Amino acid sequence: KLGQVAREYGLVASTLRKATPGKVFLTRAEFTSEKELFGKLGIVSLPHLAPIPPSLPVGAAQAVGLTKDHAMPLNDYPWSAETIAGWVMETAGLPAVEINRPSLLKSRFAPVFMLLFMASAAVLGYRLYHAPFLRHTWIYMAGSLVIYWFSVSGGMYIIIRGMPFVQFDQRTRSSNLFLPGQGQLGAEG
């Protein structure tokens, strides 16, 4: 879930860069390349979000005096961008900002894509309606038999109830195909 938090953190960073220029500085450090920095900050678990105020003395040879009370709490991890931004703005004493999430619907090309999709769906529907292969009754008979077989074979029961086809046996440490029905699909009782 660290990748999800990193994406949300990137959204917060880009939003705060535009909304509060020069007031909040966000940085990201990775443990593999910055082990010495993590030792100076006293960070023992990841992810870790902590404010470093401008008044805090930071030297090259000394440890930074951060307390655990200043770190973002892990009780609602993984954090959303809104949670991170709210905590950062509250810690910095600034008003809350709205996170601008990129979306296809917010794009200026969204109406064009919608019109193209609706036009192509209409053309496809028209062509399928007038297709000669849909005029044969055997297609509808075969389709109704497939639907009937699927409904009485236990396939729908398995999908609705979420029953597995394979079951792991703890005693023998092997997986067994779970088919108790006689000649039917799946794990129905």
TrEMBL record:
Record's bilayer topology term: Multi-pass membrane protein
Spans traversing the lipid bilayer: 109-126, 138-160
Cell compartments where the protein resides: Endoplasmic reticulum membrane
GO biological process: protein N-linked glycosylation via asparagine
InterPro entries reported for this sequence: OligosaccharylTrfase_OST3/OST6
Name of a matching Pfam family: OST3_OST6
GO terms for cellular component: oligosaccharyltransferase complex
Signal sequence interval, chain numbering: none
Job description of the protein: Subunit of the oligosaccharyl transferase (OST) complex that catalyzes the initial transfer of a defined glycan (Glc(3)Man(9)GlcNAc(2) in eukaryotes) from the lipid carrier dolichol-pyrophosphate to an asparagine residue within an Asn-X-Ser/Thr consensus motif in nascent polypeptide chains, the first step in protein N-glycosylation. N-glycosylation occurs cotranslationally and the complex associates with the Sec61 complex at the channel-forming translocon complex that mediates protein translocation across the endoplasmic reticulum (ER). All subunits are required for a maximal enzyme activity.
Protein name, entry field: OST3/OST6 family protein
